[in-house]
Design goal:
Elongation Factor Tu (Ef-tu), domain 3; single chain; binds flavin-adenine dinucleotide; 264 residues; globular; binds FE2/S2 (inorganic) cluster; alpha/beta; seven-stranded antiparallel sheet; 2 domains; 16 strands; Rossmann fold; seven-stranded mixed sheet; 22% helix
């Protein structure tokens, strides 16, 4: 019987800094995740951490991870160079409900590094013209804006509001909390066929969801993604459990009807 906890080693193809503490790692792999899933990324003798898939290409055989340097494992990952090896197991968790989004109008709101898990979703929706898509991104300040070049490319053809909490919007960003700009979204002019995806810090997700509900969006049409301390990632250890819900198995993506109980 194979050991489900045993990671395999994969080569780092490129490392692209996105901010002083957030780097994009592209890894050569035959693993085939879907948008919204995560993998356990590890370094031998250091430990492992769940990291969302920030993009992938099954045909070309690579996955990208946006990793924020915050502790033991992520510090060790930042010491690696192109050509070095990293260990992966997974993919784990559910993916964004693309089937449900077919032909729908979709708003994607991401705060800070929450842009990483929605990046493959955004690319899929942009490449599928049957969707009406609108984007709302919130960052702390200019320095923490991630995927700047991609954001600029997306905004050529997709309506977008980009906000910074403080400082000045040097490139025309709106200044203030991202939640303040929800009523300005064009797609909210009609609530027909509207789905909303919110990914970011828990408080941001909660208050954003409440603002969408205030604007008339029903809870069934709101989706969020959770980051929660994990260990096994396969429903065995209970580290990620909130009440009866295993975030690693039942999530990380939840409909707001369920998520609202987990966010409180
Ligand atoms: C489903 C899911 C998806 C995720 N996706 C991503 C992703 O795409 N990118 C990403 O970067 N992260 C992601 N995370 C979060 C990531 O897994 C955690 O940040 C992880 O714990 C980092 O591991 P670490 O060993 O580097 O940090 P740890 O050493 O475990 O530190 C974790 C936290 O503890 C704090 N800490 C560490 N040491 C100390 C100390 N001595 N005193 C006080 N505080 C301390 C750190 O500031 C940090 O906030 C995700 C988590 C989940 C559950
Ligand atoms: S992380 Fe072990 S049960 Fe979810």
């Amino acid at each position: 019987m194979s050991n489900i906890y045993l990671p395999k080693k994969y080569k780092i193809l490129s490392i692209t800094p996105q901010s002083p503490i957030e780097f994009l790692f592209k890894v050569e792999t035959d693993l085939k995740p879907e948008a919204g899933q995560f993998l356990q990324v590890s370094i031998p003798k250091v430990g492992e951490a769940p990291i969302s898939v920030a993009d992938f290409n099954h045909k070309e055989g690579w996955i990208e991870f946006l990793i924020r340097k915050v502790g033991k494992v992520t510090d060790a990952v930042f010491s690696l160079e192109i050509g070095d090896h990293i260990f992966l197991r997974g993919p784990y968790g559910n993916s964004f409900p693309l089937e449900k989004f077919k032909g729908k109008r979709v708003v994607v709101l991401a705060g800070g590094s929450g842009i990483a898990p929605v990046r493959p979703l955004i690319k899929t929706l942009i490449n599928n013209p049957s969707h009406d898509l609108e984007l709302l991104f919130g960052f702390k300040d200019q320095e923490s804006i991630l995927f700047k070049k991609e954001i600029d490319a997306w905004r050529q053809n997709t309506p977008m509001i980009l906000t910074v909490d403080k400082g000045c919007g040097l490139d025309g960003e709106c200044v203030g909390l991202v939640t303040e700009y929800i009523p300005h979204l064009k797609l909210l002019h009609s609530l027909d066929n509207l789905e909303v995806v919110i990914v970011g810090p828990p408080m941001m997700m909660k208050f954003s969801a409440l603002e969408f509900i205030k604007q008339g969006v029903s809870e069934e049409n709101i989706w969020v993604s959770f980051e929660r301390n994990m260990s096994c990632a396969v429903g065995k250890c209970g580290h990620c459990k909130i009440d009866e819900t295993y975030i690693c198995l039942d999530g990380p993506i939840f409909n707001y009807t369920k998520a609202k109980k987990l966010l409180d």
